[in-house]
Amino acid sequence: MAFEIGVMTFGEITEDPVTGAIPSPGRRARDTIEQAKVADQVGLDVFGVGEHHRTDFVGSAPSILLAAAAEQTTT
């Protein structure tokens, strides 16, 4: 039986546990794209972005984040 391994995010904007800093939505979106790049580099099968319509999430338009990630990844 085949299965896929991957990660999923909503692009939540949360406080850094070390510094206490809260990233801007733009920074969090760039970080999400970077996470997709790393997932691609290490060979994960899936990188998912969930949709959420709150101010503490950047995933209100997952197709846009995934399109930006697709430009930066090979698979």
UniProtKB/TrEMBL annotation:
It holds the Pfam family Bac_luciferase. InterPro entries: Bact_Lucif_Oxidored (IPR050766), Luciferase-like_dom (IPR011251), Luciferase-like_sf (IPR036661). It comes from the Bacteria. This is LLM class flavin-dependent oxidoreductase. Residues 4-74 form the Luciferase-like domain. Keywords: Monooxygenase, Oxidoreductase. It comes from Actinomadura adrarensis. The keyword Secreted does not apply.
